[in-house]
Structures
1.
Amino acid sequence: MPAQAATPQTVTPCQKPPAGRVKIGFEKLRDGGYAPLLGHKVGVIANVASVDNSLTSIVDCLHQAPSVQLQAIFGPEHGFRGSMREGFSEPETQDPDTGCTVYDIYTKIGDALKNILKKSGITLLVFDIQDTGSRFYTYIWTLFDCMMACAELGLPLLVLDRPNPISGLDASGPVLDPRLASFVGRAPIALRHGMTVAELARLFNAVFVKKQTGQKASLDIIPMDGWQRDMFFEDTGLTWCPPSPNMPTPLTALVYPGTCLFEGTSFSVGRGTTMPFLYLGSAAVDGRTWAEAATKAGCAGTAFRDVWFTSLVDPFKNTLLHGLHCVVTDRTSFDPIATGMTLLSTGRHLAGSSFWRGTGKTFDQLSGNTQIRTLLDKGAEAPALAALWEKDLASFRALRQTFLLY
């Protein structure tokens, strides 16, 4: 018989970490003999970065554990194996290593998601995916959607915590306007949320899941040992495994909250190069002029140089682009949101009305605020833009504080 569901929002206590590194939730589950999984038919939401300190996949560990019955695997954006580009996922298939069905749950919501979970036959769902600390990185919204489904199905959920790679000292940037909700932002949180996935799960469950479903999910959490809020990923002693194809390094994750906003413009964000989100460019601007303008505007902890590059992916495939390289010189003083706003302001000035992608809707969904684009069109600079979200950010910071684990 399946073990009893955990009481809503239980948290395993933190312990002293291994010498020199953080111990992630997955490792604590493993070293504890997988106790919360015993008696369950287990499903796991995982991807290519869901590994332990020996770089072994959680799926392989669960499959090899005699006491664990691994029933199903669920893949997010890019797929369980991480083989697909942005906006795509791997189709349902059978995993050759475990024999388990790998279900595609990217963008699945409501009845469609509930039907997949019921079809899988699981009695416990585990989430173990590395986030990047940005609202529009979609894995946290796969978690959100699964929490909604779990609440309605009475299916227990176990979240294994991992570091916020860009530190968790504070939240910054615009808070999502609920009218702009999409799969790059389901709920009103700050663009740089400053939380771990387990902390987000606690917030989601207590505020948004309960509000939308009338009940909380049966949520259990295994936190990390030794993680501190001022840690960047490089401070954790862990090995970075890219959680998505264009997130090759922790540095990419650090600039991402600001430079990914250019996905809503006519500029390239460097996909298909060795420097995604660090290179930005267009065939319609002079990169040297842009780099000089950004430098003159002044962005703490960063420098800019002009670069030429050719993307290998659509929509800029085989097009020579001129732009700039965002070089982080001091990660502690670097502010990705302020830097992003400065680059948007100077880039919009140089590109003119051709700056936006389509109608601008994509940018609005990414930023979470329609007024930013309006003010940029009027020539606003970064300080004026920041004033737009001060009040909402203060409210989110207060709300966030309640759910922090570290």
2.
Amino acid sequence: MKLIIAMSLITISFVSTAATQEQKNNTKFIQDLMLHSKWAGMCGAIKQMGNFQESTKMPGGDEFIARFIATEQARLNISPQQFLDVCEKATSTYNDYAQIQP
């Protein structure tokens, strides 16, 4: 009887640990997806601002976009090249996620 109880406790412990690890993996995946989506959205919005400015030639628009991007880089404490690299990676990863079929 003690053996059955011990085996049951070991099994429950193992299942609980496995479930917890699976939850951690799922949470990590969801957080990663959210982070890449947020970055891809921000980068897409900045790209759209550039496209809009290119087509409208709005007075002061170039300066606004440059200041906006510089402010974001300072807020995030990253260089212009790092900003471009993160945008490229986030957009690529987001597009990969978008191809996943349920």
3.
Amino acid sequence: MDAALCLWRFGLGARQGDLQAIADDPRDLLRSEVTEHAVPIPVGPQLHSSADLMVSLIAFNRQVKAEREKPAVTAVSVEKAMTETDNRMDKAGMAAAPTMPPPMSKDKPADVANKRPYLPQQILLAEVDARFNGTVRQPLIGFGERLAMFWANHFSVAIGKGGDVHMLAGAFEREAIRPHIFGNFEDMLVAVETHPAMLFFLDNQQSIGPNSPANKNGKRGLNENLAREIMELHTLGVDGGYNQADVTELARIITGWTVYRDENRPGPVGRFSFNANSHEPGDHAVMGITYADAGMEQGRRALRDLAHHPSTARHLAFKLARHFVSDQPPVALVTKIAAAYTKSHGDLAATYLAMLDAEEAWDPTLKKLRPPLDFVTAVLRSSDVKPKPEQIVSVLKALGQPFWDPSGPNGFSDVSDSWGSSEGLATRIDAASLFAHQVGGGIDPRDFVADRFGPLLTRETAQAVQRAETKPQGLTMAFLSPEFQRR
């Protein structure tokens, strides 16, 4: 049973032969993915750094603007010339030549920009392909990849915010999250909050210290979005013991945290920048601790203390236990995880091991319904179907979990009830059937459930698959079975 739980609860799902491959010592192999810091790195020709992507986006926007303006001017010029020609012909008592082409429509001017692929979406598709047809297929168990998904949702950014975030969401996950998955939470926190994608998403580049040199006219002001989400979502939790005054003071501390994007002046375009002119001067107190005015370091110190706060330990422990074990995780399990986090001073590897070593995490009852992202990942990995990224994006959107595009900074729900509606389950049936018809003909559904589920396989599922009239129908039933849908 442990091998099946390793793959289906803590991993990405079983491929052919995986259960047998880890059968001798599944828990030790799972722990080794932590101790060896096993997290794949997405690769691809379009997966550049955030700085390079910002430079490309600026150039793309400039080209689009030029292309939109050029045909519009051409359309007006052509129509003006045609009108002048008609007037001259009327005065001469002549009809216009029938071979003369009609003027361009005012309603639909020739717009070259409409034919240009939207660069941020092209980059997003490359990021999707690198994960679903790359990183999710590489590891034996995939605990590190699951953690990458977990932290990307914990520190959510949404591509729907606009072109900047759309362009940088993948780089954000590659640069701020993956390198720190098995490191210290403090380092991940600083990397996340100073990444251009997060600064754009929560508008911190617009936050100006009320008494800063940049606000001499008093017309610009403080934006508390990033400070609020740092405390409420990223560290302490909503019941973490802070108040509105703490949010405001943290917002003042991180004024000046912005992104350099002036292409007309020398500087690291697309990179984090501390703008001292926009920074609110003075000492500021957050949750009883006063931080001296030290520029950028003032904010780093505040983040460091938030990362090591007892409320952060409890908040992260609960979220990890809820994600991997059950919607209402055992109190004893949460306590063990939080204690390991505190004792190790925020060492994430030690924190994960405390969860994996706790017997409460190995209850064989499959309690959690897979969110759409987990479901699609398991389908593709277990069946070796390799769809185009456009189809993956489309399916996830239909299932209600559009890739990297939650409706708010709190990310997608990690509770089963959010995904168990009749409409959502009906869409899962469609998705399961879609992918089942793409599976190679060499896979027998009966062998599939026996090999992938092992001891999890129930008589009901085995009989249902056995009675299927076609292979796609049998695989669809396998994908929709309780063994597949829950972990």
4.
Amino acid sequence: MDESHEQGSAAAGVRSVTRALQILSRLTDERTVITLRELQDETGLARTTLIRLVATLEDHGLLWAVGGNRYAPGPGLLRWARLASSSWELPLESRRALRALVETAQESASVWVRQGVRRVCVAQEESLHALRTVVRVGHDGPLWAGPTARVLIRDLPDDDLAKIAAETPDGAGRLPLMRQWQAEVREQGYAVSHGEREDALSVIAVPLVDKDGAVTAALTLAGPTGRFGDERLERYLSAIREAAEVISASGFMRLGASTPSPR
């Protein structure tokens, strides 16, 4: 087999994996069952290709046929979910620090990591207030808006910033603003906003860092803007920085290093 043939086979394999992941990504919390027609319309795949990929995913337990050309998440995903949950479980000291932060500030706290051009919540602790911010573990969001994103992009080179900017309505025009965010977080050590992404929602974010001071994750505190006045904000900043020191030292993964690849 010549080199060009091997490269072609490898590219085809990667393409198939990408398409399979594209299919699985169409399932969400709001839509746990999807039809073959919806998959075809949303992925743009040829019907024969789609049927083949769906059958493969079904064979491996990643999809489950529920009748009428409809599919739900398969039982095989339960194993992956269990492994991910175990791996990303906060170490005891970090969990205690997160709970102490919520007890002190009386607002919801969460830990986020960068995953490509998105951010993903890997841990959270809810406020006990009736009116509170609720973020589920596994929830993802953009890296081009909000304090959490600003913290996570602090150390990124321009190549990575450009990939994130490409996801925004502004395209490359977003880059100057993102560079400004980087400078602000480096200078202040935190990011804060009031009503930026959602009306009446305030968020404070600080970096979690490795032993060299590089950003590995973001710790956030969020709640109604009415509870984030100047006096409380200073108290919240003190509390979240204290928690960040503990979590940075203890890590935010029970298994492995606290600096997972963001690719």
